[in-house]
């Protein structure tokens, strides 16, 4: 009821905004407006997840696979690849930072495959590497936002992310969902500021002789990672 009510109330804003985003994508990059990707949802069931396309068609996914594999086996914060990535279409980094690329997932919500609040749906190759403890995060419907996303996600490790998701699975309630939704906007604003700052640092480093620019950005959320 919370999901459907929020979506219906926001439709007057979401519909024209989605058309605008779709038009921008078509203008800046040839190819489809939407991107579909198989994700793992509730109780390990696969489903097709929808997003606005923010990368070039046929972009190499191996960069994200390698980065994710490293995060899962280290104590590094779960930050996304930072810098400038030529695979990301013009303006795509801001769509990701603002979470606007995930608006089509409202279709998944209406289909019952996702909820507004819950753990982010993981990719199949990520799920295959999970230990039994990690797979416990699939005990709730995956969401567009969640407890981890509003808990300074870029400064938490993979295991800490799992802890947040498991806590949500154990204690989820209507009150918790409302609280997480209210915290999502400030979290998105903070994330956008961080992306802007890191992009400026990368550009500054690239313009200084002898300074190595920051590695390229893959704002693919996936894991999920984006709000």
Write the layout of secondary structure elements.
Elements: H1 2-28, E1 34-40, E2 46-52, H2 62-72, H3 92-97, H4 105-110, E3 115-117, E4 122-123, H5 124-127, E5 143-145, H6 158-171, H7 174-207
Parallel strand pairs: 3-5
Antiparallel strand pairs: 1-2, 1-4
Describe this structure in words.
- The chain is mainly α and 227 residues long.
- It has helices spanning 2-28, 62-72, 92-97, 105-110, 124-127, 158-171, 174-207; strands spanning 34-40, 46-52, 115-117, 122-123, 143-145.
- It has a 3-stranded antiparallel beta sheet with strand order 2-1-4.
- The longest helix is centred in the C-terminal third of the chain and has 34 residues, at 174-207.
- The model is unreliable at 211-227 (pLDDT under 50).
Outline of the structure:
The protein is mostly helical and 227 residues long. 45% of the residues lie in helices and 10% in strands. The strands form two sheets. Strands 2-1-4 form a three-stranded antiparallel β-sheet. Strands 3-5 form a two-stranded parallel ribbon.
